[in-house]
Amino acid sequence: MIDLGLSKLAIIGVVALIVIGPEKLPKVARMAGTLYGRAQRYLHDVKSEVSREIQLDELRNLQKEVHDSAAEFKSDVEFHMQSSVQEVEAAWRGDIQPSAPAPAASMDNLERKAKDFRRKKLVRSSAVPAWYKHRNGAKTRVLSGAARVRKFRPGVKSTNSFF
């Protein structure tokens, strides 16, 4: 970029005044301004066109990647479907004996799952103490849908009378 300071602009103005003359200087300055504006607009258009082309190229690459992955997925699904159809047809014809059913879950596995369930339930239910829930007004019990409707229905007062 050209470094134009105030002193350099003054020197250019004096030289232009001497060379062009005072009569034609305003006309030349206007023409230079319009040419400078046109050049700026042209450069802006070129920059926007280049950035548009770059974005378009990126979109083309993305489209190509998506198309390739979709084609790969389609071929994978078709392969698995074809193999499944062949297995079903072979089983229908009786070429393949059905496989033995999976063995029942062992007792140790069931006990481990039950223990994990109880532990997780304990963690879920005891995460926040009941006294804290009562103090802050959090829900401690679940209301059914009918109870919620009765509680929040306008004009109906809920009576809590216990005998």
Automatic annotation (TrEMBL):
InterPro entries reported for this sequence: TatA/B/E, TatB
One of the Pfam families matching this protein, by short name: TatA_B_E
Record keywords, A-Z: Cell inner membrane, Cell membrane, Membrane, Protein transport, Translocation, Transmembrane, Transmembrane helix, Transport
Membrane topology reported for the UniProt record: Single-pass membrane protein
Location in the cell: Cell membrane; Membrane
Predominant subcellular localization, coarse grouping: membrane
Superkingdom, taxonomy of origin: Bacteria
Keyword Transport in record: yes
Function: Part of the twin-arginine translocation (Tat) system that transports large folded proteins containing a characteristic twin-arginine motif in their signal peptide across membranes. Together with TatC, TatB is part of a receptor directly interacting with Tat signal peptides. TatB may form an oligomeric binding site that transiently accommodates folded Tat precursor proteins before their translocation.
Subunit structure: The Tat system comprises two distinct complexes: a TatABC complex, containing multiple copies of TatA, TatB and TatC subunits, and a separate TatA complex, containing only TatA subunits. Substrates initially bind to the TatABC complex, which probably triggers association of the separate TatA complex to form the active translocon.
Family designation: Belongs to the TatB family.
Identification of the protein by name: Sec-independent protein translocase protein TatB
Organism encoding this protein: Massilia jejuensis
